[in-house]
Amino acid sequence: MTAGVPLVVMEDVNKSFGDLQALKDINLSVDKGEVVVVIGPSGSGKSTLCRTINRLEPIDSGRILIDGEPLPLEGRALARVRADVGMVFQSFNLFAHKSILKNVTMGLIKVRGMSRAEAEDKAMELLKRVGIADKAHRHPAELSGGQQQRAAIARALAMNPKLMLFDEPTSALDPEMIKEVLDVMVELAAEGTTMIVVSHEMGFARSAAQRVAFMDGGRILEVSPPEQFFAAPQTERARDFLSKILAH
Ligand SMILES: Nc1ncnc2c1ncn2[C@@H]1O[C@H](COP(=O)(O)OP(=O)(O)OP(=O)(O)O)[C@@H](O)[C@H]1O
Ligand SMILES: [Mg+2]
């Protein structure tokens, strides 16, 4: 049991784009095996928060530690950290001109140094796990949105990441495809994958998250277990936000 050991620590993190401060004094610690769902209005800094964790966005001040190590600024050390942090975005980000199988094996061959045969075995196993083994030789455009998103998850998982970041992975999907992607995510959570998930899927937050972090205006205004957050949000802003999304 590794609960209680922090995998990601953000300390006093600030990040601006010109005059706009997108992250303000962010303090957040995510334990190994923990699932944290990040919610909040558009423009509140949720994507920026995710992107700073693998340094797709550099920060202005503060510290980010992954597995006890400060996030490297650049070079091979940064590439190593990035390989350990799987990221799945709203848009599927698969390579359009490569088969699904190639999309999954590329990182294994190039970054993890696996042989092609080994990589293909592992990739097929993962595609089976997310339910799209039969699509291995198709190109992304031949898959539904939900299938593409499951391929993106398989590709990220192939690297055996320490952490999975999900930024609104289901928000571009039709309702019937949302469930098939959430089912895969619920399973990952149940297996003890450490996950930071930006999502307004309240059902997912309730069933899979240990904590919900509510952001507004670049700040984390509250972090609490989902049952507590949904029943009795502590801030007016969170109450207001919840009443809007629950009204849908
Ligand atoms: N590359 C950038 N350049 C300039 N401003 C940016 C950039 N990325 C984000 N911002 C600004 O930073 C703020 C936070 O953006 P962010 O994308 O993190 O919000 P979000 O909470 O993910 O919103 P949404 O729910 O719409 O995805 C916004 O005001 C946005 O316009
Ligand atoms: Mg966003």
Name a few traits of the molecule.
globular, six-stranded mixed sheet, binds magnesium ion, 248 residues, 9 helices, binds adenosine-5'-triphosphate, Rossmann fold
Annotated CATH homologous superfamily: P-loop containing nucleotide triphosphate hydrolases
The hetero compounds bound to this protein are: adenosine-5'-triphosphate, magnesium ion
Overall mean confidence score, pLDDT: 93
**Which strand order do you get reading across the main beta sheet?**
6-7-8-3-9-10
Number of helices: 9
> Which secondary-structure class do the elements indicate?
alpha/beta
Note poorly predicted spans.
none
Level-2 CATH architecture: 3-Layer(aba) Sandwich
The beta-strand count equals 10
In whole angstroms, the N-to-C terminal distance is 39 Å
CATH class annotation: Alpha Beta
Shape: globular
CATH topology: Rossmann fold
Strand portion? 25-35%
Work out the radius of gyration: 18 Å
Helix-residue proportion:
25-40%
Largest sheet, in brief, is:
6 strands, mixed
Our count of domains comes out at: 1
H/E series = EEEHEEHEHHHEHEHEEHH
Ordered list of secondary-structure elements with their pairings:
Elements: E1 6-17, E2 20-31, E3 35-39, H1 46-53, E4 61-66, E5 69-70, H2 75-84, E6 85-88, H3 100-110, H4 116-129, H5 145-158, E7 163-167, H6 175-190, E8 194-198, H7 202-208, E9 211-216, E10 219-224, H8 226-231, H9 236-246
Parallel strand pairs: 3-8, 3-9, 6-7, 7-8
Antiparallel strand pairs: 1-2, 1-4, 4-5, 9-10
Helix pairs in contact: 3-4, 3-5, 4-5, 5-6
Residues 46-47, 167 line the site of magnesium ion.
